[in-house]
# Entry
Amino acid sequence: MADGDGTPVVPSNGRGALLVLAAFFVFSATDAIVKIMAGKMPAPQVTFFVTIAALLLLLVHALVTGRLRRLIPREPSLAFWRALLLALDTLLIHYAFAKLPLAEAYLIAFMTPILVAMLSFVFLGERLSRIGWAGVLIGFAGVVVALKPGVAPLNFGHLAAFGSAVLFALSLILLRRAKVAETDEALVASLLVVMTPVAFAVAAVSGEPAPPDLSDLGFSVAGGALMLGGHALLVRAFRVGEASVVAPFQYSQIIWGCLYGMFLFATPLEVYTLLGAAIIILSGWLVLK
# Structure
């Protein structure tokens, strides 16, 4: 098996798991930067600054290394639909965050690994073992323990969070299908090209923009670099590992988020968080069995 430029790809669920763990560690760092910036300006404006910074960094890297052609997708329609799914996913989850407690929104959004396991069987013919399914469900239970969600009245926020989980799951299935035809750079570039105008449009209609200062620009570049690295790791993870096995490691984002919260925002670690993290680690071991 080879990727879009003929480089051999050795399938490995273990390597895919390590890569996706790194991806969600990096994504959580991006979220931390977004949280810092959102204290001074509207969240959609922050999303736009970080996204356009990631796109510019990718273009600069491609120019310096002479790899501009690798940014052009070989299957534009598939790359576009995946990018659009992720853009809509972002809009829905941001709406859910506005309407629900974060724990409720995360809990519903983290149904993605379960949906990926089902969709992988339907569209990719991948089949999890009983132990693997147990790992997926135990991991979700770990998320429940860690987040301790309350009971909020059902509203459109719940529907938006579930829609976000469905769209993210579908984008991961498309990512798995696109692995042979495309380079990693083309998959990341197509996402950022679609995401940038979407983020700009949402920022434009969401209220008064706040003028950025020098520190905001620095955070934007740092956040953009992390976003770029996270998506590159995510693409590579699904290139080498089966979607149904790799996806459940999304649960690890709860652990990374708690650690960033403790070190950057002085958020204390609770017993429930540690217990949930232990359950999630057990689930990852079972999925790889």
